[in-house]
Known about the structure:
Blueprint: E1 3-6, H1 17-25, E2 28-31, H2 40-44, E3 52-55, H3 62-66, E4 73-76, H4 86-91, E5 95-97, H5 104-120, H6 122-130, E6 146-150, H7 154-165, E7 170-174, E8 189-191, H8 194-200, E9 203-206, H9 220-225, E10 231-234, H10 243-251, E11 257-260, E12 278-280, H11 289-307, H12 318-327
Parallel strand pairs: 1-2, 1-3, 3-4, 4-5, 6-7, 6-9, 7-8, 9-10, 10-11, 11-12
Amino acid sequence: MAKILITTVPFGDKNDLPIRQLAETGVDYLINPIGRKLKEDELAGMVRDVEVLIAGTEPITEKVMANAPRLKLISRVGIGLDSVDLMAAERRGIKVSYTPDAPAPAVAELTIGLMFSLMRSIHVANAQMHRGEWHRYFGRRLTELTIGIVGAGRIGGRVARHLRALGVKRLLVNDICPDACRFEGVDAIECVDKDTIYRESDLVSLHVPLTAQTKNMVRREHLLQMKPDAMIVNTARGGIIHEDDLAEVLNLGHLAGAAVDVFCEEPYQGRLSSVERCLLTSHMGSMSVDCRTRMEIEATEEAIRFLAGKPLEGLVPEAEYQVQREGL
């Protein structure tokens, strides 16, 4: 009997449909027994007889695949592929699929929420109130801000549409593909280079995948290019902002604030934890009930299709493999 290992957690917590779907097929499955993001060695020790991984963001490396001689499909719950060695999968004939559209609405809305919290110092006031302190902060409004978006894909486009509907003063967008900077139904966007975004934005929001080209894309020199009272949000992937550089710049008193949802090592315990005006959330961009459920269902249905010998619907496109090839 085929065996499925579900590594992503939580799984089926708010809607047990994907678990019921697996049960109805009679397939043998196991949900991550550790209950947290797995480390490479932990995952490598679990995959000996596994044919399908319903995967999260744990490292699915050459070492893991070498320990999984029966593995034939990695079905990612989500969109990011930086944790999957696509080249190793390709060499071993392992198919990789993902659910790129499902998390976009939730991540975009969290991004907007983090922006509002930064603009009005909600997170700082909340922490101080819990300590018995009372301080009223002057804040800023979207209609007075220039906002820069780096990455004009599924999520960046949604963020742009939300911001335009909310009346943002000026919207700057950067993408490696200039044509991607034109969003249907969103007018008056300025397509600019990243240096212009850093220099002229009051708030910068990052929406790029983690690749060899984007790792540590935002470093100390870029943060210092920004206005002293500017803000930055990262709901994309850990490692796009150099975390220690961000902590250093914030501790220098530069930037009004930052919001970070994703980290190089998760759970995060780094230097940003001690910077009060840095708003930290626990990689929860996709964690709305509807979007998380859709991600789990799509990844599960892909696994069931594979085991039934049916065509797969969410295969990772060749362009994603090419990105990893170029980073080698």
